[in-house]
Specification:
330 residues; alpha+beta; 29% helix; 39% strand; elongated
């Protein structure tokens, strides 16, 4: 019985030891993915911001500017692209909707972002765009990869349609989570006017005829939970200007928008709670289960060897030889 139990334990030890790397290096890339049907809404606010009044073409201080960002997965588009991409793909239709303190629209910019469901690397396909303009993204946007590293990443900026480094600046604690802090500065750059303008009758084409141009700069900051690669908090010190042309009435420039844009508190709390939940799931595949199975395999191997040794028992002693009797002399 001990010999049989020893063999069973040995088989289990081999099974769990083999399962450990399979979970980490085979199952994890195939199971840890962004859902193709994900729908997400984020609200950000810039309190005490400066905003251009297009009626008077003068900048003024306002109590608050609100930015609503939505990301909606297009499942059918993802399935179509997967047929030629040869990997799992996510298609996000995004919208950045900016509204003033009166609730009226300031601008709205749609995007289509196509990326690998596991690595978050861009996947180039028809339909990839920003505000109706075809783009070819390089680098990440919105989300970092699973198991984010302490290094710089390439990050796509939708305003300039360019990719620039976003720098790792250190590790911090954010509401009980260890996070990596990243920062990117986009210098003053000439950018396109939004296709949808806040005043009826004004279009990018009509503004272009006046010779007025739009310029933009920002300092982008993210606090990223490294296991999931999800930003738990974000902030932008954002500035936009209109420069030159007859539209400004002889002025060299006027501020179109300036403010410190931050995530609203209720959305920050929701994001932190969601990331903590998802972090546990990712750790199960990358750490808890692989290491647990490996340790279990070692323990089972030790128990198997112990039972095998007990089953054999101590060696039997060799029989002693009886000395032949000596002859008796008379």
């Amino acid at each position: 019985m001990r010999r049989t139990a020893s063999l069973i334990l040995l088989a289990l030890a081999v099974f769990f030891a083999a399962l450990s790397p399979l979970l980490r290096w085979y199952a994890f890339p195939r199971l840890a993915k962004i859902p193709a049907n994900q729908y997400e809404t984020m609200v950000l606010e810039a309190k005490g911001a400066t905003l251009l009044d297009y009626g008077t073409m003068k900048a003024k201080k306002v109590p608050k500017v609100t930015i609503v960002q939505t990301l909606k997965g297009d499942v059918e588009a993802a399935r179509t692209i997967e047929k030629t991409a040869g990997r799992d793909v996510v298609v996000w239709d995004g919208l950045s909707y900016v509204q003033g303190p009166d609730g009226k629209m300031v601008s709205k910019v749609p995007e289509r972002y196509i990326f690998d469901a596991h690595s978050q690397e861009p996947v180039h396909a028809t339909g990839e765009m920003v505000d109706g303009d075809p783009v070819r993204r390089d680098g990440i946007e919105f989300k970092w990869p699973f198991l984010t590293q302490k290094r710089d990443y390439e990050y796509f900026d939708a305003q300039t349609r360019t990719t620039n480094p976003i720098h790792y600046k250190g590790t911090q604690d954010f509401r009980g989570l260890k996070v990596y802090y990243f920062e990117q500065t986009v210098p003053w750059t000439k950018v396109k006017m939004p296709r949808t303008m806040p005043v009826k009758g004004i279009t990018p084409e009509s503004i272009a005829k006046t010779g007025t141009t739009r310029w933009y700069t920002t300092v982008r900051r993210f606090w990223v939970e490294p296991v999931t690669g999800a930003p738990v908090y974000g902030e932008e010190i954002h500035q936009e200007e209109l420069r030159g042309g007859t539209l400004l009435g002889g002025r060299a420039k006027v501020t179109a928008f300036a403010g410190d844009v931050k995530m609203r508190e209720d959305y920050t709390e929701h994001t932190v709670a969601l990331v903590k939940h998802n972090r546990t799931i990712v750790l199960l595949l990358t750490s808890y289960l692989p290491w647990g199975f490996l340790i279990l395999g070692i323990l089972l191997l030790g128990l198997s060897l112990y039972l095998e040794a007990r089953g054999r028992g101590p060696s039997d002693p060799a029989p002693s030889r009886t000395a032949a009797p000596e002859p008796v002399s008379a």
